[in-house]
Specification:
5-stranded mixed β-sheet; Pept_M24_MAP (chains A, B); 6-stranded mixed β-sheet; about 400 residues; aminopeptidase (chains A, B); homodimer; Creatine Amidinohydrolase; Creatinase/aminopeptidase-like (chains A, B); 11 helices; Creatine Amidinohydrolase, Chain A, domain 1; globular; hydrolase (chains A, B); alpha+beta; 2 domains; Aminopeptidase P family protein (chains A, B)
Chain lengths: ~400, ~400
């Protein structure tokens, strides 16, 4: 293992073994993976180079043994420093054959006619390769049937190891220290766009490797949505400011937010903040192995509905780890059972009578006994920043 | 158009019209798009929310008129502030039907049996939706034939408007100011991981919205690869330090690097740096409308080969804009003709006798007369940082 690996080879071997047990249950000869988080999870292959959409990358997990990498030559030095030993590469980009025949050859070697080949095809997945190349690959692999493995991956990756939980906790703590310092940067005349820049700087100063996700808002008495880019108006008294981050350290995300009121706060916003806090408190107290995700959703939904003029819509949390958002979704349709090692966000939102909304989010891990906070617990009362003039 | 739009509606209308002209040439009734850069390009829809892989997003460009958005409800408020008026949404995630039947209904409304439906299927593209949902969509849309539009998108998006070129130039200037300040942060005892954090902070301070990509290296007399994550060893005398960034402002990338030598520098590194500088100089002088990308490649390759102990491998540059890397690739197989408005990186690399490599990268735009630098021109001589003890 090279100097850049986050975990020892044992961690990756254990992940592969657990996955291979689930694969055996579904009679799979191999699994084909193409995405950044799957390369990170099984190979320990970390790079920001996924930002370039030019080259496809392939990782094959056979029924037994270590994964085989079929990758562009530019990735060979880095892949050679992971625990993966069987690395096959081509000089990409190749307009005539961008790894497809090399991949087909490798899959023919690792599987036999009649075998089932696993590919993530279900929700929250996508195939990171050109569709035409995928179709050509299928033509080059006659007599292998494709089988959706998104369920297998959800189950295996959803149950984090103690090393993974420690990594997520560390990222949450980094964000916690940055959130604590927000009063340093949320000053008179700052625009939301500038606040975004300064908050990213705080996250880096506190130890984030990379700020992959940042959202937020600053509007009078609540906000209209939570995914818009930052505006260029100075933040003013009466604004409710929200910052929500997915910072990354060693490949693991946090995902939680904090709210502040500037100068003054309406009773409606104060009350909404308390209700959201109490909703996360109630969910935290209820969360334990055996409870289903939909049960947790209903507990939160019941609490929120009592105070919401509008019906509750959208999910109230989700999984978290090597992706900003992972399965499960806290919705009525998700019957996943909570198990120890599952990392979740609790993310209740409330639309107030004014039509504006407020969102509060925390990160937890399911333990044998119940749940632990991964994000340093936010305050029940919305903090009011007094700006001296 | 809302406050968050980067360009006026006219810019997006013109993009759609140009694309629709190319679509008419291929007899297409509509085009289906699923990716972040395509949403940005045609709808002016900007958000960092693409970091969440949970929800699929669909944009349909009909043969005439404005695009139609079929999107998760969480995106409606933001999409309503773009120039897009026909917005259809569902409450995602929906485990039974995550937008697929709504998308099929919309496509049935916008196309007729026998029509050709465009989808990006070729190189440098991927379909950002679950494969199983794509197959279900095809079943729900009988009698429409699929047609690869990656060539159409390459041509249209490859020729940037003056507004786009100005945006890329601005991002390049932001990175230029950050690179100028590197001596402030590249100090004794700093590790490469810490340098990465500090450099991201400089980029934000100088005006980047977001540091989507950062690569670099710090090794004795050159480096072994250019995509590895940062190491945690203190940088020491004799190291060659490289930083390569894809910062973003208003959705447009820069992508170029700079090198520094610490304390001392070998004649081999000095010479390699000069050769790389001269290779970009030669390429810049040659670049003009009508020259083919492969010609530009051969000009660079010829120059480099004279000094390289190893054969030149990999590409020597690429397109740049709403993606860190876009078509074309500067390789022998790319016969694309240069046209005014094309933005390129010139990225020659040289493997020295030691086996270590050096990379130099600049960003240019093709003009009527030749080429313009978008990145502030780097130095011919590698700067040597003297660290006082």
């Amino acid at each position: 293992m090279g100097e850049t690996a986050v975990f020892g080879a044992g961690e990756y071997e254990a992940r592969c073994r657990r996955t291979q047990e689930a694969m055996a249950g579904e009679g799979l000869a191999a699994m084909l993976l193409t995405s950044e988080p799957d390369f990170q999870y099984f190979a320990g292959f970390f790079t920001r180079f996924w930002e370039s959409p030019t080259r496809p990358w392939f990782l094959i997990l056979p029924a037994t043994g270590a994964p085989v990498a079929v990758i562009p030559g530019i990735g060979t030095p880095l892949m050679s420093r992971t625990w993966i030993e069987d690395i096959r590469s081509w000089d990409a980009p190749d307009y005539d054959d961008d790894g497809v025949s090399l991949l087909a050859d490798t899959l023919r070697e690792l599987t036999r006619p009649g075998d089932r080949l696993g590919v993530p095809m279900g929700r929250e997945t996508s195939l990171r390769m050109p569709l035409a190349d995928w179709e050509r690959l299928c033509d080059l692999l006659p007599k292998r049937t494709r089988h959706d493995v998104s369920g297998v991956l959800r189950e295996v990756q959803g149950q984090k190891s103690s090393a993974e939980i420690a990594a997520i906790r560390r990222t949450c703590q980094i964000a916690g220290r940055a959130f604590d310092r927000v009063p340093e940067i949320l000053r008179p005349e700052v625009t939301l766009a500038e606040l975004f820049r300064r908050f990213q700087t705080l996250l880096l100063e506190e130890g984030a490797d990379w700020v992959r996700y940042l959202a937020g808002a600053a509007e009078q008495s609540g906000y209209a949505d939570v995914i818009s880019p930052a505006h260029h108006r100075p933040i003013v008294a009466g604004d409710v400011v929200m910052l929500d981050t997915g910072a990354v350290r060693d490949g693991y995300f946090c995902d939680y937010d904090r709210n502040w009121a500037i100068g003054t706060v309406t009773p409606q916003v104060q009350e909404a903040h308390q209700i959201l806090f109490e909703t996360t408190e109630t969910a935290f107290d209820a969360a334990r192995p055996g409870l289903r995700v939909c049960d947790l959703y209903h507990i939160m939904e019941t609490k929120l509905s009592r105070h919401s003029p509008a019906p509750i819509s959208g999910r109230l949390g989700h999984g978290l780890g090597i992706r900003l958002t992972e399965p499960p979704s806290l919705i009525a349709a998700d019957t996943t059972e909570l198990v120890p090692g599952m990392v979740l966000t609790l993310e209740p939102s409330l639309t107030m009578g004014s039509g504006k909304m407020l969102v509060h989010e925390e990160n937890i891990v399911i333990t044998e006994e119940g749940a632990d906070w991964l994000s340093p617990r936010g305050p029940r009362e919305i903090p009011v920043l007094e700006w001296a003039r």
